[in-house]
DNA sequence: CTAGAACCTGACGCCGACGTCAGAGGCAAG
DNA sequence: CTTGCCTCTGACGTCGGCGTCAGGTTCTAG
């Protein structure tokens, strides 16, 4: 498929796809006129890339790990880097969970204050 | 305390602290000579700010929500924004958990391939 | 054949959370 | 007094993941 279709199907911009190719995250056949042609599998691959991006991995890291993630093909060194990233994601999740808890208790408390018709500040001074 | 001490105690750079003040995330008394002086409570506050940053909130959002988070003082509108952010964090956690699972199974699979002394690629071609 | 959509390659713009450098005070110790 | 560290205010630099514009080619529908 051409780049426009891949863009709509994977939900990312055409510009982003070109960027991914530039970063060697994605490869494409070229038609004689120079247009990119992607296989069906590119849709999944782009979604995977997005997933890794949102997990905080950089292009550099992703390009190193992708062969391993896609093919299951790894060296001990790659395995290490994968474990490092997984652990980072673990810490990130724990951190977010703590923040979520904090936000939640703030929401609960503030909602309670609203319901009882007074803020903590007012409660303190009055 | 002065800015250097706050920096070492909260684990962020002096530059970052000045930036936080500039963004109205932090306020400081000034000595006659212009040096900032922070109360003890600033340490916790900086850690809270860091927590919210790493949860993906922007300075703009944090500055709006901080009074609420710190004082429990909220309007219905603020409560909405808090809930929006909490839900975003929820989705982020779910997303990360999925990615973590993916990474983990890749690691397991690749480790298995290494242990059995062959890659998937080799397994496919031989 | 032609209009318009889709595609191409540069190349500059952007944004946020700082890093970093410059140049100039301030402050405790010997 | 001076040495040396801390602090100050600008102000420009950075980096990553694109957005966006320019100027040109290519594909497709009528």
From TrEMBL, chains A, B:
Keywords recorded for this protein, A-Z: DNA-binding
InterPro entries: DNA-bd_dom_put_sf, MerR-type_HTH_dom, MerR_fam
SUPFAM superfamilies noted in UniProt: Putative DNA-binding domain
Residues forming coiled coils: none
Domain spans labelled HTH merR-type: 1-68
Key word Thylakoid present: no
Lineage: superkingdom: Bacteria
Xref: PANTHER family: MERR FAMILY REGULATORY PROTEIN (PTHR30204:SF97), REDOX-CYCLING DRUG-SENSING TRANSCRIPTIONAL ACTIVATOR SOXR (PTHR30204)
Protein name as catalogued: MerR family transcriptional regulator
Lineage: Bacteria, Bacillati, Actinomycetota, Actinomycetes, Kitasatosporales
């Amino acid at each position: 498929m051409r780049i426009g279709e891949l863009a709509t199907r994977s939900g990312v911009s055409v510009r982003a796809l070109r960027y991914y190719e530039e970063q060697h995250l994605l490869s494409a056949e070229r038609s004689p006129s120079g247009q990119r042609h992607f296989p069906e599998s590119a849709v999944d691959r782009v979604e995977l890339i997005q997933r890794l991006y949102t997990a905080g991995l950089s292009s550099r890291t992703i390009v190193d790990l992708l062969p391993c993630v896609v093919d299951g093909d790894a060296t001990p060194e790659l395995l290490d880097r994968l474990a490092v990233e997984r652990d980072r994601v673990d810490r990130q999740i724990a951190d977010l969970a703590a923040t979520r808890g904090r936000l939640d208790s703030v929401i609960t408390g503030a909602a309670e204050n609203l319901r009882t018709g007074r803020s903590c500040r007012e409660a303190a001074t009055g």
